[in-house]
Amino acid sequence: MAAGIMLAAHAELETGTLTHPAGRAKFEIIRAAVRRWPDWLQSLAEIAGMEPPSLRRGTIVLDNPNVSDFDASNFDAILKGLEDDDAPFERLDPADIDGYRPRPHLRASRAVRIDDGGAADAFEVMNLLDQTATRLGVRRVDARVESIADSVIHLEDGRSLRPEVTVIACGAASDSLIQGIPELTGRVPRVLHGTGVGLRCRMSDSSTIPAGILRTPNRGAGLGVYYVPSSDGRFYLGATNVVSMIPREHPRLGSLHLVLQSAMDEISPELRHAECRTVAGHRPISEDGHALLGATSVPGLWIATGTRRDGVTAAPEIATRLVNELLGDGDGLPEAFRPERRPVSTLDREAGIELAVRSRVIGPRSLDASISGRRLEDTVRRQVERLYDRAGLSSGVPAELLDAYADGHLHAEDLVPPSFSQ
To answer: Are 182 and 360 contacting, i.e. CB atoms less than 8 angstroms apart?
Structure first.
């Protein structure tokens, strides 16, 4: 319910995404899902007997090199992906974007409108799913699961369920269930909580704010700025990512500050007039950053989680492929994401360090690199190198997971080095 539900495939590309089998598999699933969404919503609406949620089409991606070193290179990766796929897009002059009024020194240098992208309202989608499930006669059990053992689901209230097939697909909360199954101990990568903070806002006069979806490329560690308007002056702002082994139910002050400052500095100061409420959710991030999708060695037990920031977008395609495998018909889930595997590194140590450094020095800067800026980067680099040493990492890890490795929650010896990843 905290998701912005941006239907983005090419806009999620980063430098190096397509150089590894897992990255290519992830992109292909998301790309297929984005294409599936309109018909999927329509088919659900026909079952539910209601109008489908409206999809806002088109996403503008902004390249802002004066905030992040990630923007230019990841923007180039997005452009290349669009061109290679012959996908519809349009290059824009940032000065021509309606309602886009950033601080002068933080104006984007380039922009592109991706026609296939878009967004859906989370509340409307969840209501549609709920109504569809009712029409299909889906039985809901209002209880929390305590454990799964010998194909039996044990509930906290003392009841138990004996299904033919069980799919563990409860996001970041999946980890405690998976780790409690003796047959899977040490065989499935851990799933951590990536807490994202956003704001649902409304302006009484929406004529002064952008009418279209605006976002930056990904900025390492799951960061980036995005603005998703809906209707009646409502819009969504996001987002942040703080990774922990346990859920953080309330947003950090620093996370809220980051969203607010980024939105008003990089999109428009007019947003300060909006009335807002905070939303927080937990992205499921596996210990190598890749999804866990498919059957396990336990008969009748399947897993679908670890999707990081792409779970809602990819849901229709993941669900379809999972059902295909259950029925033994059609395209299945990628081998790269099989749940029982050692965590895979896709970076060498130096590339991982560089990624972490760049993730930690994101922020507005002047057009000319200052001595203080270089000193800050040198200081951060020494800190990151110490964390890598403390964790015993000889391979690179996703930037948002570095602290978990350094604190001993995750273990470097479990990683498959990049040279053996395929």
So the answer is: no
In this prediction, residue 250 carries a pLDDT of 85
**DSSP, residue by residue, 88-104:** -EEEE-GGGSTT----G
- Residues 371, 224 within the same domain: no
> How many alpha carbons lie under 13 Å from residue 235 in its C-beta half-sphere?
28
CA-based torsion, 33, 36, 38, 40: positive or negative: negative
pLDDT at 373 over 70: no
Domain end (from 338, 365, 397): 338
Enclosing domain of residue 400 = 347-420
Q: d(Cα 194, Cα 218) in Å, to the nearest integer? A: 15
Bridge partners, residue 195, by sequence = 242, 282
CB atoms closer than 10 angstroms to residue 269: 13
pLDDT recorded at residue 367: 42
CB atoms within 10 A of CB 108: 25
- Tens digit of each residue's pLDDT (9 = 90 or more) over 298-350: 999 999 999 999 999 999 999 999 999 999 998 999 999 999 999 999 999 99
3-state secondary structure of 272: helix
Residues 95 and 164 in one domain: yes
* Contact in structure between 227 and 215 (CB atoms under 8 Å): yes
For the chain, what is the domain count?
Answer: 2
pTM (predicted TM-score): 0.93
**Among the three residues 338, 357, 392, which one is the final residue of a domain in this structure?**
338
- The verdict on 249 and 325 lying in the same domain is yes
Q: Are 37 and 121 in contact (CB under 8 A)?
A: no
Coil, strand or helix: which one is 417? Answer: coil
Distance CA 74, CA 52 (A): 33
CATH number at residue 40: 3.30.9.10
pLDDT, tens digit, 9 for 90 and up, residues 141-183: 999 999 999 999 999 999 999 999 999 999 999 999 999 999 9
Q: Are 190 and 181 in contact (CB under 8 A)?
A: no
Q: Are residues 61 and 88 in the same domain?
A: yes
